[in-house]
């Protein structure tokens, strides 16, 4: 029911904000025919969420997410809310805007960490600043032992 949908949307939000690729999403949008109201709710926890507005995933990722969503719904001849098309059109209009960085937000339990990521291959004389698998382990360690960060700014 409704409670299950909200739990699913919460899972989708976490994956969206950490920029999990469409094919790796653990929420099968390809089988989840949502009403237009549910689609609006999905947008409210992904692209239009406060977190995504304050710390947006890359524009390329957001555009790909919408493009894949549109493709699934059009392929199955399912009704898609107009807001999805509006957001996608806005992204296409702003395609030439170059972003120097984006954000990736990781969640573990009730904690989150947002990382600013350079979108350049080279940044400040070094290879592009990207997150690596080791960052997940560091995050787990810091969340498990919060005293390591108590009173510190990272």
Question: Can you describe this structure?
Answer:
With 154 residues, this protein is an alpha+beta fold. It contains 6 helices and 4 strands, in the order αααααββββα. It has helices at residues 2-17, 36-45, 50-54, 59-75, 82-93, 133-144, and strands spanning 101-108, 111-118, 122-123, 126-127. A hairpin with a 2-residue loop joins β1 (101-108) and β2 (111-118). The radius of gyration is 17 Å and the shape is globular. The model has no long low-confidence stretch (mean pLDDT 82).
Summarize this structure as a short list of keywords or feature phrases.
alpha+beta, two-stranded antiparallel ribbon, 6 helices, 47% helix, globular
* Strand composition percent: 5-15%
- Helix-strand pattern, N to C? HHHHHEEEEH
Shape: globular
What is the total tally of β strands? 4
Rg, rounded, reads 17 Å
Strand order of the largest sheet: 1-2
Structural class, judged by helices and strands? Answer: alpha+beta
Low-confidence stretches: none
Q: The biggest beta sheet, please?
A: 2 strands, antiparallel
Tally of separate helices: 6
Question: How much helical structure, as a percent, in the residues?
Answer: 40-55%
| Average pLDDT figure | 82
Measured distance between first and last alpha carbons? 41 Å
């Amino acid at each position: 029911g409704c409670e299950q949908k909200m739990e699913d949307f919460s899972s989708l939000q976490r994956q969206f904000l950490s920029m999990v690729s469409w094919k790796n999403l653990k929420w099968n949008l390809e089988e989840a025919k949502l009403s237009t109201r549910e689609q609006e709710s999905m947008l409210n926890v992904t692209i239009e969420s406060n977190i995504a507005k304050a710390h947006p995933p890359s524009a390329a990722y957001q555009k790909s997410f919408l493009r894949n969503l549109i493709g699934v719904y059009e392929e199955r001849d399912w009704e898609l809310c107009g807001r999805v098309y509006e957001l996608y059109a806005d992204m296409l209009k702003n395609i030439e805007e170059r972003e120097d960085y984006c954000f990736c937000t990781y969640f573990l339990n009730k904690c989150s960490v947002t990382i600013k990521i350079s979108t350049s291959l080279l940044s400040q004389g070094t290879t592009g600043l990207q997150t690596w698998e080791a960052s997940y382990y560091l995050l787990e360690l810091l969340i498990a032992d919060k005293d390591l960060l108590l009173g510190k700014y990272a």
